[in-house]
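I'm stuck. Protein, please.
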Amino acid sequence: MYKSSKISKLSVWFVLILLGILTYIPIVIMLSMSFRNNGQIYSDFWGLPSPWIWKNYKEAFEGIGRSIFNSVFVSGIATIGVVFLSSLSGYVFARLQFPGRNFFYLLILSLMMIPGVLTLMPLYAQISGYGLLNTWWALLLPWIAGGQVFGIILCRTFLEALPNELFECSRIDGATEFTNYWRIAVPLTMPILITLAVMNMIGNYNDFIWPLLTISGEKLQMVTVQLQKIGVDSSNNVQYGQRMAAYIISCLPLLVLFSFGMKYYVSGVTSGAVKG
């Protein structure tokens, strides 16, 4: 019995290690390609760089440095808007009683059943009609509005599970509803809010289709679109070393974000699972 249990544990560890190795193989290949030119890649795809071409990173950063700032800046503002409005709306739906509360919440919930691709062209026509094309407002407004659905559901579900006595005692002491939201609800839901912020930041930063449709000026362009122009020479040949270096550089802001927010992200995911 002990021997079979030990064998099963070893089998599980073997499978996990194998999956981990398979997961990191594409990353290792991308790193290797980023230090080579096309000649090295085509002649020996699995080989190591010889010599190491460090200028790929310099040229890649010159091509996408501004767009990385654009993506971080616009995605950050949109994320702040989503977190604030979602937490405020979640508090209203969870802690306040008003006519039609459940009806409006069900309407919001039903929006999750509509694929985003179906609203792509109507949203584009709306933004175009407002004269917002090729401005950051064309990104900010849809990103903030689009993140509300999941955010409201997440915040409302968590806030409903909090003891009502916390808010009743505060009201007896003369606190307003906004005070209850800001001083009680927000601190208690901080792991959920950080989880929501990380998810929205990653989603907005990685968005490709919407910036491609609405932003045409290179100075305002997002990094996901700008990446497609990196490493393309005058003959329309792609220098894959520069392209891979640009991919790695563009990943760094998200790696930094997740490294600092991972503790709270995991806490928010697990607490959300328990509360749900």
Remarks:
- Residues 60-275 form a domain with the MetI-like fold fold (CATH 1.10.3720.10).
- The mean pLDDT is 88.
- The chain has one domain: 60-275.
